[in-house]
Design goal:
heterodimer; A: 77 residues; two-stranded parallel sheet; 8% strand; B: 133 residues; five-stranded parallel beta sheet; 18% strand
Chain lengths: 77, 133
């Protein structure tokens, strides 16, 4: 099932504490970085069969990032 | 082989990014806080520094100011890395002396582009200094 990453309302993005946005981005960096690293390693090792699964993890991470970028902003801005 | 110093306190960020840079053919040095980063930069003279800004002991802004004020290290290009994405974070990093800035989550092709641009120019703000050193 695809996820809509577009803004959910016509109003301004929801303001959240700066630290919360930072703390959401940090594990997302791990998810995206390790899934891309594993895709590179699997391709290099000739295990192409694992790549589509890893691509699903990577895409889910990017969808989550787009959701955050389109719907959340920091309180200080 | 070009030598990159990665200054990063988060273990998973450090492990993941260092592995990815090694796969791209870079030699990677690691520091876990700003003080260690400044010490390794001084002793090892890396070709480029990737500097997380929210660091223990000495933060990335202070470590950058120290390195850019030191003759031996001021020509080393520094790219700030942060999970904060506000425009003021970029301004703050550039004011501290960083040559460029990138946000987490890391998009590797984007980061490599910034690294290569600085490595080719010998440091955006200090190419003349580096050529003469």
């Amino acid at each position: 099932m695809s996820v809509s990453t577009k803004p959910r309302t016509q109003s301004a993005p929801t303001a959240v504490p700066c630290d919360l946005l930072h703390d959401l981005r940090t594990p997302l960096n791990h998810i995206l970085g390790y899934s891309e690293l594993l895709m590179e390693q699997m391709r290099a090792a000739g295990h192409e069969e694992y790549v589509p699964h890893l691509e699903k993890i990577r895409k889910a991470g990017h969808d989550l990032l787009d959701l955050m970028n389109n719907n959340l902003t920091t309180e200080a801005e | 082989m070009l030598k990159i110093l990665l200054v990063e306190d988060n273990e998973l960020n450090r492990d993941m990014l260092s592995r990815r840079l090694l796969r791209k053919g870079y030699d990677v040095l690691i520091a876990k806080d700003g003080a260690e980063g400044a010490a390794i930069a001084t002793s090892e003279r890396p070709d480029l520094i990737l500097m997380d800004m929210s660091l223990p002991v000495i933060d990335g802004w202070e470590a950058t100011r120290t390195l850019k004020a030191t003759e031996k290290t001021k020509s080393i290009p520094i790219i700030a890395l942060t999970a904060h994405a506000m425009s003021t974070d970029r301004d703050k990093a550039i004011e501290a002396g960083c040559d460029d800035y990138d946000t987490k989550p890391i998009e590797l092709s984007r980061l490599l582009g910034k690294m290569e641009a600085l490595l080719e120019s010998g440091g955006a703000n200090t190419s003349q200094i580096r050529m003469n050193s």
